[in-house]
C-alpha cells in the first residue's frame, strides 16, 4: 500500500508539474500573440500617419498627387461648390489691372494682377496684401523637376495654412495648360473651392494638367525674375530633391499693390 501511495503522489506531482509547464507555455503564446498584434497595429498606424502627412503636405498645388496638383492644402477643406468663411467681395478688384512689388528676401519683383480676368482671386489678394497678411510669411516649396514653381503665402510655413477662408471656383486657367515663366497663380487642393492665400510663381514655362480645372492665374511677374532665380531658385531645394523647401530660406519681406 505504501508503495502505491508513493506512486500516486509522484503521479500527482508529475501532473502538477506538467500542468504548470503547460500554463507557462500558454501564457507565453498568448503574450507573443498580443505583442504581434500590437506591433502590427503600431505599424499600420505609423504607415497611415506617414501617408496622411504626405497627402496633407502635397495635396494642394501644381504637380501634387493624389489630390490637386502641387500646392499644399489651404485649410479648412471646403465643401465642393461652396465658399467658406469671410471671403472678400469680388468687387474689390474693380475690373482693372493692379501693379505693385512683391519682395522676397529683399529681391523686388514687379507684379501685375489682372482684376478683370480673375476678379474673385485678385480681390482676395488685394485684401490680403493691403492688410499686411503676407509680410513675414515664407515661400515653403520649390519644384525643380517636371514643373518649375516657387510656392509662397502660407502663414504656417509648411503648406497647411491659409487666411481663414477659402473660395472658388477656378478663374482664368489656361485652356492649353501652359503657364509661361512669370505667371502668378493660386495654389489649391483638389476642390476648386480651396483657393486661399497660397500662390505660386512660375519661373520656367510649365505645363500643368487641366483635368481637375487648372489653377487661377491672377497675374504675372513683370521684372526681377532673373534676380529671383540667381538668389533663390538656382540653389535648389534643401535636400536636393526635385520638390521641397528651398535651400535658401525665402520670406516675403514686403508686398504692395495699387
**CATH architecture identity of the domain at 90-257:** Beta Barrel
CATH class of the domain at 90-257: Mainly Beta
Helical amount among residues, as a percent range?
A: 25-40%
Strand order of the largest sheet: 10-3-4-7-6-9-2-1-11
Mean pLDDT: 83
CATH homologous superfamily heading of the domain at 90-257: Cyclophilin-like
Number of strands: 11
Helix and strand string, N-terminal first?
Answer: HEEHEEEEEEEHEE
- Alpha carbon gyration radius: 29 Å
- Model regions low in confidence, pLDDT < 50 over at least 5 residues: 43-59, 65-76
Shape: elongated
- Main sheet attributes: strand count, strand direction, barrel closure: 9 strands, antiparallel
CATH topology of the domain at 90-257: Cyclophilin
Question: What portion of the residues fall into strands of 2 or more residues?
Answer: 15-25%
Biased composition (Low complexity): 65-82
EC number: 5.2.1.8
Domain PPIase cyclophilin-type: 109-257
Transmembrane segments: 37-58
Structure description:
With 258 residues, this protein is of the alpha+beta class. The chain has a domain of 168 residues: Beta Barrel (Cyclophilin), CATH 2.40.100.10. 29% of the residues lie in helices and 19% in strands. A nine-stranded antiparallel β-sheet has the order 10-3-4-7-6-9-2-1-11. Strands 5-8 form a two-stranded antiparallel sheet. It is elongated and about 110 Å long. About 11% of the residues have low confidence.
Amino acid at each position: 500500500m505504501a508503495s502505491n501511495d508513493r506512486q500516486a503522489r509522484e503521479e500527482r506531482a508529475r501532473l502538477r508539474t506538467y500542468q504548470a509547464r503547460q500554463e507557462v507555455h500558454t501564457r507565453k503564446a498568448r503574450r507573443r500573440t498580443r505583442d504581434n498584434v500590437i506591433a502590427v497595429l503600431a505599424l499600420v498606424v505609423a504607415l497611415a500617419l506617414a501617408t496622411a502627412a504626405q497627402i496633407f503636405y502635397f495635396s494642394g498645388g501644381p504637380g501634387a498627387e493624389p489630390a490637386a496638383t502641387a500646392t499644399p492644402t489651404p485649410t479648412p477643406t471646403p465643401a465642393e461648390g461652396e465658399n467658406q468663411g469671410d471671403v472678400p467681395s469680388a468687387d474689390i478688384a474693380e475690373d482693372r489691372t493692379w501693379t505693385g512689388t512683391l519682395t522676397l528676401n529683399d529681391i523686388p519683383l514687379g507684379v501685375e494682377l489682372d482684376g478683370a480676368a480673375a476678379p474673385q482671386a485678385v480681390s482676395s489678394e488685394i485684401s490680403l496684401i493691403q492688410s499686411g497678411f503676407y509680410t513675414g510669411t515664407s515661400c515653403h516649396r520649390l519644384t525643380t523637376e517636371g514643373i518649375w514653381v516657387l510656392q509662397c503665402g502660407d502663414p504656417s510655413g509648411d503648406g497647411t495654412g491659409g487666411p481663414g477662408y477659402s473660395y472658388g471656383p477656378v478663374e482664368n486657367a489656361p485652356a492649353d495648360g501652359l503657364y509661361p515663366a512669370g505667371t502668378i497663380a493660386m495654389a489649391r487642393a483638389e476642390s476648386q473651392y480651396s483657393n486661399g492665400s497660397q500662390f505660386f510663381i512660375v519661373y520656367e514655362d510649365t505645363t500643368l494638367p487641366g483635368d481637375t480645372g487648372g489653377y487661377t492665374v491672377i497675374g504675372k511677374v513683370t521684372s526681377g525674375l532673373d534676380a529671383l532665380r540667381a538668389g533663390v531658385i538656382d540653389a535648389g531645394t534643401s535636400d536636393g530633391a526635385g520638390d521641397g523647401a528651398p535651400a535658401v530660406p525665402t520670406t516675403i519681406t514686403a508686398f504692395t499693390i495699387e
